[in-house]
Design a protein that fits this description.
five-stranded parallel beta sheet
């Protein structure tokens, strides 16, 4: 099975670029979005089938990271979402939107993030869910 495409939604270029490069070095194809408006555009583009969305809960745009997760659910986007943020009280809300646990904390622990992504990929394989591809 091939690695899923990851949509990384992060407004801070000093966080987004190194994290995207790390994930690429780990074998993932990464599409970067500066805000949730760009993320929605990517997710609605036929040429961009994303398997995992990693979004900051406080992402700028018309909606925040929580809004993006809700939008994905209400629009039938099957990608798994991993929410991240620094606000601890947001963990309960993130857990409601992310099937496999609460949000990740920032700054990102790269190995923890990679393990979470691998877990999502393994769960899809066990469930027989094909990975979308570009």
């Amino acid at each position: 099975m091939t690695n899923p495409h990851i949509l990384l939604v992060e407004s801070d270029v000093l966080v987004r670029k190194p994290l995207a490069e790390y994930l690429r070095d780990c074998g993932y194809k990464v599409v970067e979005a500066l805000n949730t408006d760009e993320a929605v555009e990517v997710l609605t583009t036929v040429n961009a089938a994303i398997g995992i969305v990693l979004a900051d809960v406080s992402s700028p745009g018309k909606i925040d990271g929580f809004g993006l997760a809700n939008w994905m659910r209400s629009n039938g986007i099957e990608a798994k979402i991993i929410l991240a943020g620094t606000v601890q009280k947001a963990a309960a809300k993130a857990q409601d939107l992310c099937e496999d646990g609460p949000l990740l904390s920032k700054p990102y622990d790269h190995s923890l993030l990679l393990n979470r992504i691998k877990s999502e990929v393994a769960a899809r394989a066990r469930n027989g869910t094909p990975e979308p591809g570009i």
